[in-house]
Amino acid sequence: KQEVTQIPAALSVPEGENLVLNCSFTDSAIYNLQWFRQDPGKGLTSLLLIQSSQREQTSGRLNASLDKSSGRSTLYIAASQPGDSATYLCAPSGSARQLTFGSGTQLTVLP
Amino acid sequence: DAGVIQSPRHEVTEMGQEVTLRCKPISGHDYLFWYRQTMMRGLELLIYFNNNVPIDDSGMPEDRFSAKMPNASFSTLKIQPSEPRDSAVYFCASSQKGLGYTFGSGTRLTVV
Fold first, then answer.
1. What is the DSSP pairing of strand A105-110 with strand A10-14?
2. Which chain A residues contact residue B31 at CB under 8 A?
3. Distances from the Cα of B23 to the Cα of A80, A103, B8, B16, B112, angstroms
4. With an 8 Å Cβ cutoff, are B42 and A42 in contact?
5. Do B104 and A46 touch (CB under 8 A)?
6. Res. B1: pLDDT tops 80
7. B63 strand-pairing partners
8. Average of pLDDT values for B47-73?
C-alpha cells in the first residue's frame, strides 16, 4: 500500500523567500505524481503533473522534481508571496491510476 | 469546459437520513474518483470507476455507502443511513487515462 509523507507539516516564511517542500512515497512504481494546492475551505487546484518518465516540471515560480527510484519529489517555490499561503499536497498515482495523498504542508507567507 | 461539477455544495441532514451526492465529470474523461476529506484522516479514496465500471471500492467504509455511475457524465455517492461520523467534505475527481486529475469543489456534509 502506498504511503506518502510530506515534510514539513507546516512552514511560515517571510515574503520573498525561496522554499522547498518535500514529499516521499514508499512504492516507486508510480504512473505519475501531481502537486495540488488547497486553500482553506476550498477544493484542490492542480499545480504540476510529472509523468513517471520525467524528472521535473516548471510553471512560473513553481518547479517540481521527481526521483522515482528514491521515492521523492520536491516542490520549489521561488520568491514566495502572501498569495502562496495554502496547503500543498503531493499525490503519486499508482498503476491503477488512483491518487494517494500525503497530509500536506501548510504554508504561510508573511507580508 | 465547466470542470467537475458537484452538488450540493453543502448538505446538512439528520442522523438516519439518506444522503445522495452527485458528480458530473469532465466530458471525455474515463476515470472518476470519489474522495473523502476529514481533519483526522486527510484525503481518502472511497471508490473509483473506469469507463463507468467500478474498479476498486475497498475504501468504502461500510455497507451504508454505495456509488453508481450509470453513464459517462454522471455519478452518485449515497449514504444510507447517515451517521454523524460521516460528516466530511466529499470530493469527486475525473481524469483522462490518468494523465492529470481535476477535482470538483466538494460537498460539505454535516450529519447532526
1. parallel
2. 97
3. 35, 25, 9, 23, 23
4. no
5. no
6. no
7. none
8. 95
Inter-chain residue contact B56 with A96, CB threshold 8 Å: yes
| Model pLDDT for residues B29-56, shown as the tens digit of each residue | 999 999 999 999 999 999 999 999 999 9
Q: How far apart are CA A86 and CA A43, in angstroms?
A: 11
State the number of CA atoms in the 13 A half-sphere of B10 facing the CB: 3
- CA atoms lying within 13 Å on the CB side of residue B69: 23
Give the residue from chain A lying closest to B43, CA to CA. Answer: A101
Residue among B30, B47, B29 nearest A98 (CA) = B47
- Chain A environment of B99 (Cβ under 8 Å): 32, 49, 51
CA dist B61 and B41 (Å) reads: 13
Q: For A3, name the nearest residue in chain B, comparing CA atoms only.
A: B44
Cell of B112: 447532526
Distance of CA B43 to the CA centre of its chain: 12
Position B36 scores a pLDDT of: 97
Asked if the C-beta of B25 comes within 8 angstroms of chain A's C-beta atoms, the answer is: no
- Provide, as residue numbers in chain B, all residues whose Cβ is less than 8 Å from the Cβ of A106: none
The set of cell numbers assigned to B1 is 469546459
| CA proximity to A45, closest of B68, B92, B101 | B101
Beta bridge partners, A20, equal: A76
